[in-house]
Amino acid sequence: MINKTAAEMADALSKGETTSLALTQAHLDRISAVDSKVKAFLHVDKEGALAQAASVDAKRAKGEKLSPLAGIPLALKDVLAQKGVPTTAGSKILQGWRPPYDSTVAAKLKAAGVVIVGKTNMDEFAMGSSTENSGFGPTFNPWDLTRTPGGSSGGSAAAVSSFQTPLAIGSDTGGSIRQPAALTGIVGVRPTYGAVSRYGLIAYSSSLDQAGPFGRTVLDTALLHEVIAGHDAHDATSINADVPAVVAAAKSGDVKGLKIGVIKQLQGEGYQKGVQTRFDESLKLLASLGAEIVEVDCPNFEYALAAYYLIAPSEASSNLARFDAMRYGLRVGDKDGASAEAVMNITRDAGFGREVKRRIILGTYALSSGYYDAYYGSAQKIRTLIIEDYAKAFAKADVLVSPTAPTTAYKIGEKVDDPMAMYLGDVATIPVNLAGICGMSLPAGLAEEDGLPVGFQIMAPAMQDQRLYQVGAALEAALNSKWGAPILSNAPSLGGAA
Q1: Which residues are catalytic?
Q2: Cβ–Cβ under 8 Å, residues 180 and 157
Q3: Diameter of the chain measured on Cα atoms
Q4: What sections of the sequence does the record tag as coiled-coil (predicted)?
């Protein structure tokens, strides 16, 4: 059963062919069997998950109306608060903290009867592209345990790719859902900024952060998207509008007559040969389905990476100031009459990792007197130019596409001491976050050089998320027909059939 899609599991539950309790236990058994190798989870809530599953089964037995995903297991990125469950954001400074409230995403999942089996590993405070910056050690890619699963949502992506759960939630600040989805051979979506509430999402960069779904198919991801999206009065940036009909779009999958824009700046030089090959093949498949392929020019995208690494650290330096050892979380150095300032310094030094310190220092400098306009202000101007580039491009095409990441998964430790090399892994995903639009990554095949997954990125205008699923479903069906089976069936034994 755990090899089936979430939609197939939901169908089996509705027909009485299995129970949520049995399904949840099967996934808990899978976690026990493989997570010592993958290390996707920071905390497995076995008792809580089984209690949630039993509650869903009881409601189903009474004939109560349930959501389509009621009873389906899910992994939750540890950046989202879940009441009474350890929530660390991958940082030792929050080790042992149990939130007294649910994030809106967690509350919506519970209301829909989705079974949250545990919290997944991540780059500390979502700062990273490999899940090597976690305060609790790295997560490993199920396709090759010597490689990174991407980040910062690498734990969630690895959980889905290794069949430990059929669904997961991640967060995407500069590509942290789409990039790990690409590197682990699954589907990941960053919804339009404000379409999913950020209430209870531990902030890294408030103008860029966005929670979103992972699944092994486009339809599974759409089903989860509809559960977590919607207006929330607790979040001042939440969009008060109807949720786009993403499930209907995922079921239609028709691209005939659509214009698909290929971004000139997000391909070619700097992209691994196998990545570019799979991307070009996917374009040909979409053209064979009746889509019109056009090239679009987005000249300001070459500045996106630099702008992002000024805006995000600047907002991080402000957001992370709250972790001061005075209210919650880690507290060390509180002895022999130490001053509050000394305790804060000692605690922050002990609790924050190297990458978090690097970004706090960079952001504080960029916001300092005399430098604000030169750095943060200039970066915001670049952001406006990128938004304008997208507007011009979407005037010529219904969706835009590119490879999700320039390479396949790299070796653990290969780039951890070279931050710039790691940052370049997000070159194709960052523009979406700066513009506040939506993006999807889905598997486009395996690179011939290393046999590892390649991601195909689709981008759509704000609140037009259904276009992602319409194009994604069409491409997924064409690729599955070409391969004869979904990509994960080609994975090594750890990630393939359980």
Answers
A1: 77, 152, 176
A2: yes
A3: 74
A4: none
**What is the CB neighbour count within 10 angstroms for residue 380?**
16
- Tallying the residues shown for the chain, one arrives at 498
**How many CB atoms sit inside 10 A of residue 242's CB?**
10
216: left (phi over 0), alpha (psi -120 to 50) or beta: alpha
Q: Give the residues across from 201 on adjacent strands.
A: 80
pLDDT digits (tens, 9 = 90+) for 227-244: 999 999 999 999 999 999
Dump pLDDT digits (tens) for 170-224. 999 999 999 999 999 999 999 999 999 999 999 999 999 999 999 999 999 999 9
Q: When comparing pLDDT for 370 and 195, which is higher?
A: 195
User: And the tokens for 352?
Assistant: 């924050």
Is 60 exceeded by the pLDDT of residue 498? Answer: no
Paired sense of beta strands 399-403 and 259-263, if any: parallel
Domains (range + CATH), the chain? 6-301+383-490 (3.90.1300.10)
What's the pLDDT tens digit per position in 398-438?
A: 999 999 999 999 999 999 888 888 889 999 999 999 999 99
Strand partners, 190: 439
Amino acid, res. 72:
I
Do 147 and 412 contact (CB within 8 A), yes or no?
A: yes
The pLDDT, as a whole number, for residue 335 is: 81
Q: Identify which of 419, 386, 396, 130 has the alpha carbon closest to the alpha carbon of residue 266.
A: 386
